[in-house]
Structure formats: structure tokens, C-alpha cells
């Protein structure tokens, strides 16, 4: 922890705009977002273009007009292709119904069998999925025709061009870019509204429109033109071939872990929080950021502290691993995954050595270092967010590369437990690099992310903010049977109801059989926005009948707080519950939260009766308290003494 007045705190005060410092920082942030979006979206854009061209050629070769592929009331359509789609839909639905009936008859004759133990359920599900896909294909011709009609209208009335301009390459590109820009504007509006609970319905509608538009614009543009004009020249086939080649090459060489916002975020966190001391030209002790190129391995830091005989709180970095609803209790969509200097993992994965993940974790630049782990623990913005996941927003964020989470190797997958022999020969090295590159998280993993079909059984698992499972880190301390626990709640509790504490208590009871007896009402704000206290004490009851002490401190404004905090709240009513999406603080805002946390910490220490000798180091440097370096945790500071790991 950094002492008040330390060089580290002074540096951090000057770096509260660490995410985008100055003009260059803002431009770099914008460039990072734009480049990540292009690399993430390009395979999907090209795939939609290829599908549109191929389907359009198929329609054109058969001499079918798009107008012929529309349903005409109750009459059977004249197009054989459309009749075929209707037959596919009817056949798939009938198959699913028959399978359900057969399953029920079999249960009545041979006894009820468990769900999922026969092949009828997955076959019926796949049949209905095919029916849904065929239904989408039914409406595509009408949508493509409407796209062409509206686009010609826009070119004529909006740009003053003749309707025939739509048949030129330049005209089609201009109108497609225009529709994509409009779609991106809708997407940006949806992402902005995602942080506002009152606009949730509008956000979901805009997210659905934005995500669908990003795929439909290139698909409908290619389908509408090709269905009318067919193959005009050899260049049409060359364009599709080049697009297909680009998709394949990107699948091998361009990986999500190289262009996601996680790398940008960890670089900025490293610059703000990974510090070491030096002296300036006047001999004053100052704090400087560690060079980003200097690798900071979590496991080696733990070894160095042990070698020097230093005793610090055991750091547990809390993350969440996202899963499907079939793998975790209903409504969670995530499980716990933690990192410590010696082990990492969770109840579903065991606890392998952390150094195992630090070695050869992926392509150059994606190593799982301590700054990377720290960035993952704060990766609140992501398509998959545990119980906070919304399917339309998930789809949109996955396509636009709005993600701070990261893919890591699945410790339970057998492929990572086999030592491969070194590649012999140049051809073998090339073959292996191509195979490994194709298996890296790329467009296919992004698609799974968009559709929410990630599982805990694939080669890679997806980690995000630990708050997507449990926001306080309290449950992980109870899992380790800590007997004296300080829990600091710095969440953006807009309602003041202590929801995160309630979820943590419920999780501890359901997953660990540990009961927490604590009444937080004294630290919850009243009608005037102030609380009676900033910390309360409770009792932990473990299933083996051992007990522990819990002190819960909350970022709330107490009636007896320093007057500067009350004055700041009068100017900014959101204090002390600013959204965690606000990553840039003014100096006044920084001091308000620092002072609030300092007061909460002192009050928590009083309630836990920690001896004064354990609270400070009397040594000093230039009259300032000595800092022992940063204690990095998930969202807030959680510290437990009496560490007793199970097993």
C-alpha cells in the first residue's frame, strides 16, 4: 500500500488521466479503438460479402428475380427455391415435434429417462436451429430488394446522383459506407446508454439494430447487386477469392489477444501503478513507472519477497471466467478464477502453478504478466459480463471489439498437458505455426463470444472482471478460511442498498456453506445521502464451526466526515458513487476519494483491533513514510489474516 504523501501517491495524483494523457494520449486511444475495430470486424465483413456474392450468383444462374422470392399471401410461391426453404422449415419443425412425441412415448413405456441422456434433445434442437436459419433466408430477398430501393432513393435525393449510380462500384461502396457509418452511430449510442440503467430498453433495441446492421449491410449489398447482374467479369470471381484468402490468412495470423483493448488497458495501468523509486537531479526521492517492456511476472515477485524475508498480505487477484448457463447455476454465467503468486485457478479448474501460465502463454505481446492480470481483474467492459450480460449488447460489443477481457489457455484441456517434441525441419515448423495460429482465439472465438456459446471445455477460456462473479472479493477470502477479514466496498452503489454485499453473503452460503452475520444498515446512506458510520463489524461462521471476524467498510459519506467531502458532494451529487467507467479523475475528485478511503480504513482498523505496530513502518525517507509497494486487488482492498488454505 502507498502511504499518504509518498512519492508513489504524488505520481498517481499527476497521472489520474492515465488512460488518455494529453492530446497524444487521446489520439492514441482513438487509434487503438479504431484499429482494433477494423481487425476484429474485417473477417465478418468479408464473410458477409462472400456469402452475399455466392447466394446472389446462385439466384442469378437460375434466372430468378428477387421479387419472385417473396411470399404472396397464402398461395404457394412460384419459385422452387422458396418452396424448398418452406419444405425445410416444415420438415425441421415436424422432426422436432416427432422427436418430442417419441421421447414421451418411450418414457411412458420404459420409464422416465434423465434430460440429456438420449440423442433426441440435441437432434431436436439442431432441427429447430436449421428451421430458424431457413426462416432468415426467407426474408433476405425482400430485405435485399428493400436495401436497393432505399439506397437508390438516398443517392438520388440525398447526393443528387442518378439511380444508375448504384450499379457502379463507386456508388455501391459509397452507399454501403454510409449505411455502415449510420450503423456505427447507432452502436455508439447503444454503448453510451449501456451505462444508464433507466435507458436499458432503448439500449437493447439500439444494440440489436447496430449488431444486425454491421452484418446485413455487406451481405445485402452483395446479394442485391449479384442477384440482378450476375458475374460481369473475371474480376468478380477474383474479388471473392481475394476476400476468402484474406479471411483465411487473418484466421492464422491475426489473433484477438493481439488487437483487443486489453493490451492498451494493461499498458496504461502499468504506466500508472507499476512504479519504482529513484532520485531526481536534486536528490529527491521520486516514483517512476517501470518500462512497459520490462516483464513483471507475478510468480517471481512472490519469490523475491520470500527470499528477502518480507511479510506482506497474500495478494489474491479476483477474476471471472465466463461460461454457459448449462455449466454454472442459472443466472450466474460465470465462475471464480483467481491468481496468486504461486497458484491460480478456481473450483472448476483446480489450482495449477501460476508460472505455468506465464511461460509461452501466447503470441509475442500477450504474455500473462502481473499488469495483464491486474487489467483482467478490472475488465468491467466486455461482451460477456457474467450476470450482467445482455445478448443484444453482447453481440454488438463482440463485433466492435469493445472488450477488456482476455483469453487464456484452459488448464483442464488435455492439449496443454502434453509436452510436444521440438519441430524438426523448416516445413514442420511452418506447419506447426499455421496450425497453432489457426487455433489461437480469432474470428471464430469472437463469433462464439457474440452468440454466447463459450464453454469451459474448449482450448481457451475467457476471463473478465471479478465483479462479474462477485464484486467484493469477500467470497475468495472466506474460501481460504480467513479468520480476520477487512472488506472495503468501493462499488458504484447508486441505490445505496448494499447489493454487492448481499450477493457475496448469498454466494458464501450457497458455495462454501459459510454464514456471515452482519447488519450493514449503519453504513448505508439515509434520506440525506449520509450514513451513520463507514464501517461495521460482523461474524463469519464456517461449516467446521470455526468463527472469524469481518469488518465491512463502504465508500459512503458519513455525517461526521471532513467538511471538504460534504462540500464536494454538494458540487457533485454522484459522489461517492461515480460509475467505474469513469477512469479519469480531477485532482479534487482524487483527493475526495483518497480521504474517504483513508477514513474508512482507519475506522475498519479500530473495529478489528489491529495493533498499531502492524499498521505503519516507523522508517521514513525524506520525512515521508516508506512504501512497501502496491497491493493490487480487485476493485478495492481486501486483506485477510490467518490464511488457512484448504488442503
Fraction of residues in H or I helices: 40-55%
Number of domains: 3
Instruction: Estimate the global geometry from the Cα principal axes.
Output: globular
- The strand line-up of the biggest sheet is 5-4-3-7-6
User: What is the rounded Rg?
Assistant: 29 Å
Number of contiguous helices: 19
Task: Decide which structural class fits the backbone.
Answer: alpha+beta
User: How many E strands?
Assistant: 14
- Identify low-pLDDT runs: 617-647
The average pLDDT score comes to 84
Ends apart, CA distance between termini: 30 Å
Percent of residues in beta strands? 5-15%
Major sheet description? 5 strands, antiparallel
Question: What are the defining features of this structure?
Answer:
alpha+beta, single chain, disordered C terminus, 5-stranded mixed beta sheet, 5-stranded antiparallel beta sheet, 647 residues, 3 domains
Description:
There is one protein chain. Helix 3 runs antiparallel to helix 4, helix 5 runs antiparallel to helix 6 and helix 13 packs antiparallel against helix 15. The protein has helices at about 5-15, 20-60, 80-110, 120-160, 170-195, 200-230, 235-255, 255-260, 260-275, 300-310, 355-360, 370-375, 390-400, 425-440, 445-450, 475-480, 500-510, 565-570, 585-610; strands at about 275-280, 285-290, 315-320, 335-340, 345, 405-410, 460-465, 485-490, 515, 535-540, 545-555, 620, 625, 640. The protein has 3 domains: about 20-110 and about 115-250, no CATH class; about 260-470, no CATH class; about 475-610, no CATH class. Mean pLDDT is about 85; it is low at about 615-645. The protein starts with 6 loop residues before the first helix and ends in a 6-residue tail after the last strand. By secondary structure, the chain is α+β, with helices and mostly antiparallel strands.
Amino acid at each position: 500500500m502507498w502511504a499518504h504523501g509518498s512519492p508513489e501517491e504524488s505520481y498517481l495524483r499527476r497521472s489520474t488521466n492515465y488512460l488518455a494523457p494529453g492530446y497524444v494520449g487521446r489520439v492514441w486511444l482513438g487509434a487503438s479503438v479504431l484499429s482494433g475495430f477494423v481487425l476484429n470486424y474485417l473477417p465478418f465483413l468479408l464473410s458477409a460479402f462472400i456469402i452475399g456474392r455466392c447466394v446472389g450468383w446462385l439466384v442469378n444462374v437460375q434466372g430468378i428475380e428477387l421479387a419472385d422470392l417473396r411470399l404472396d399471401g397464402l398461395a404457394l410461391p412460384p419459385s422452387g427455391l422458396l418452396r424448398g426453404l418452406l419444405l425445410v422449415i416444415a420438415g425441421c419443425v415436424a422432426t422436432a415435434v416427432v422427436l418430442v412425441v417419441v421421447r414421451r412415448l418411450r418414457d411412458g413405456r420404459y420409464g422416465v429417462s434423465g434430460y440429456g441422456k438420449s440423442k433426441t434433445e440435441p437432434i431436436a434442437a439442431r432441427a429447430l436451429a436449421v428451421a430458424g436459419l431457413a426462416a432468415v433466408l426467407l426474408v433476405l430477398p425482400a430485405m435485399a430488394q428493400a436495401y436497393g430501393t432505399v439506397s437508390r432513393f438516398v443517392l438520388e435525393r440525398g447526393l443528387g446522383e442518378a439511380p444508375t449510380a448504384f450499379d457502379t462500384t463507386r456508388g455501391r461502396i459509397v452507399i454501403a459506407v454510409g449505411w455502415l457509418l449510420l450503423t456505427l452511430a447507432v452502436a455508439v449510442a447503444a454503448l453510451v446508454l449501456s451505462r444508464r440503467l433507466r435507458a436499458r430498453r432503448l439500449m437493447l433495441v439500439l444494440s440489436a439494430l447496430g449488431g444486425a446492421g454491421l452484418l446485413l449491410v455487406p451481405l445485402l449489398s452483395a446479394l442485391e447487386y449479384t442477384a440482378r447482374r450476375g458475374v460481369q467479369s473475371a474480376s468478380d470471381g477474383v474479388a471473392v477469392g481475394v476476400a476468402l484468402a484474406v479471411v483465411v490468412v487473418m484466421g492464422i495470423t491475426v489473433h484477438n489477444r493481439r488487437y483487443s483493448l486489453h493490451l492498451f488497458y494493461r499498458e496504461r495501468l502499468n504506466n500508472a501503478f507499476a512504479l519504482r523509486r529513484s532520485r531526481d537531479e536534486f536528490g529527491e526521492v521520486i516514483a517512476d513507472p517501470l518500462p512497459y517492456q520490462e516483464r513483471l511476472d507475478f510468480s517471481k515477485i512472490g519469490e523475491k519477497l520470500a527470499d528477502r524475508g518480507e511479510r506482506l498480505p497474500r495478494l489474491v487477484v479476483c477474476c471471472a471466467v465466463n461460461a454457459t448457463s448449462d455449466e454454472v447455476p442459472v443466472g450466474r454465467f460465470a465462475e471464480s478464477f483467481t491468481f496468486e503468486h504461486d497458484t491460480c485457478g478456481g473450483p472448476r479448474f483446480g489450482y495449477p502453478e501460476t508460472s505455468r501460465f506465464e511461460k509461452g502463454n501466447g503470441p509475442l505481446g500477450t504474455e500473462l504478466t502481473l499488469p495483464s492480470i491486474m487489467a483482467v481483474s478490472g475488465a468491467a467492459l466486455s461482451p460477456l459480463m457474467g450476470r450482467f450480460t445482455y445478448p443484444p449488447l453482447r453481440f454488438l460489443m463482440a463485433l466492435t471489439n469493445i472488450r477488456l477481457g482476455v483469453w487464456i489457455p484452459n488448464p483442464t484441456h488435455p492439449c496443454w498437458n502434453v509436452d510436444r517434441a521440438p519441430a524438426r525441419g523448416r516445413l514442420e515448423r511452418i506447419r506447426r505455426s499455421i496450425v497453432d495460429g489457426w487455433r489461437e482465439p480469432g474470428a471464430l472465438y469472437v463469433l462464439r463470444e457474440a452468440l454466447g456459446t463459450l464453454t469451459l471445455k474448449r482450448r481457451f477460456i475467457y476471463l473478465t472482471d471479478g465483479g462479474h462473479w462477485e464484486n467484493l472479493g469477500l467470497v475468495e477470502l472466506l474460501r481460504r478460511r480467513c479468520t480476520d477479514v477487512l472488506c472495503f466496498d468501493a462499488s458504484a452503489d447508486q441505490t445505496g442498498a448494499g447489493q454487492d454485499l448481499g450477493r457475496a453473503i448469498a454466494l458464501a452460503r450457497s458455495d462454501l456453506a459459510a454464514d456471515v452475520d452482519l447488519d450493514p444498515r449503519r453504513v448505508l446512506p439515509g434520506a440525506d445521502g449520509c450514513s451513520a458510520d463507514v464501517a461495521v463489524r460482523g461474524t463469519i461462521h464456517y461449516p467446521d464451526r470455526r468463527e472469524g471476524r469481518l469488518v465491512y467498510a463502504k465508500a459512503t459519506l458519513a455525517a461526521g466526515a471532513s467538511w471538504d467531502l460534504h462540500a464536494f458532494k454538494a458540487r457533485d451529487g454522484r459522489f461517492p458513487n461515480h460509475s467505474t467507467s469513469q477512469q479519469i479523475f480531477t485532482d479534487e475528485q482524487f483527493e475526495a476519494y483518497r480521504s474517504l478511503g483513508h477514513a474508512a480504513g482507519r475506522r475498519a482498523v479500530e473495529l478489528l483491533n489491529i495493533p498499531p505496530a502492524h499498521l505503519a513502518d516507523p522508517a521514513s525517507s525524506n520525512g515521508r513514510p516508506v512504501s512497501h509497494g502496491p497491493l493490487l486487488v480487485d476493485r478495492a482492498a481486501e486483506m485477510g489474516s490467518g490464511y488457512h488454505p484448504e488442503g
